[in-house]
Amino acid sequence: MSAVVTILGATGAFFVFQQNLTHRQIDFLSDYVRERSTNIDRRFNKLSSLQAAAGQELARRIHHLTDADVARLNDDFFPRKPDGTRRSRPDYFDGHATASGRWIYGMGAFLRDADRMTVAEQRVMVAAFSVVSDFGQAAHVDFDNFYFFTPETRLVMFGPDRPDHLKFYRQTAPADLDIRGEEMAQITLPSHDRPGRRAAPICSG
């Protein structure tokens, strides 16, 4: 009888211990999920604020660029290539100090059908280059990339940590590259995002 009681007691204690352990694990996982959700929400809210501020600054810079500024900066930021594209200079990825003392790095750009661009389109891309550079550097501690694109496959990107150094866009991408079918372009379409809750053409990740 003593042995039976001992065995039953041990078995009961084991099940009680196992139940308590299970509850502790469930509580731990619940706390983890809540913390993870809070961090994701905080990161998303920060990204939304960053995107909104970048959009406002883009509009401001577009407004203040003269036609002469656009022509000069278009050639500086995006030298024309023999295939009809314009792409960013290598030193804008490697690191470049401008005449005004600004330090630009980690930048890549690809502009398809560059000869067809109007002055207004050039103005947008020139302004976007400076906005993406400035905001990308400022937010680098939280987001490792920041970019702007148009449906015509014209992109400027900040991605200094990318192992490919953005060489595809800067050097090897075909002149007829088309990003309209890519997810990053599709999710910004009104038909796929009617409330406008996802990323606009100024994005990060």
Give a quick rundown of the structure.
By secondary structure, the chain is an alpha+beta fold.
Features:
205 residues; alpha+beta; five-stranded antiparallel beta sheet; two-stranded antiparallel ribbon; 6 helices; 7 strands
Number of strands: 7
Strand proportion, as a percent range, falls in 5-15%
Number of helices: 6
Radius of gyration: 26 Å
How would you describe what is shown here?
The chain has 205 residues and is α+β, with helices and mostly antiparallel strands. It has one domain (2-204). It is 53% helix and 12% strand. It is built from six helices and seven strands. The protein has helices at residues 2-64, 67-77, 91-94, 119-138, 167-172, 183-186, and strands spanning 86-87, 96-97, 103-104, 107-111, 146-150, 154-158, 202-204. Strands 1-4-6-5-7 form a five-stranded antiparallel β-sheet. Strands 2-3 form a two-stranded antiparallel sheet. It is elongated. The relative contact order is 0.11.
Walk me through the topology:
Elements: H1 2-64, H2 67-77, E1 86-87, H3 91-94, E2 96-97, E3 103-104, E4 107-111, H4 119-138, E5 146-150, E6 154-158, H5 167-172, H6 183-186, E7 202-204
Antiparallel strand pairs: 1-4, 2-3, 4-6, 5-6, 5-7
Helix pairs in contact: 1-4, 2-4
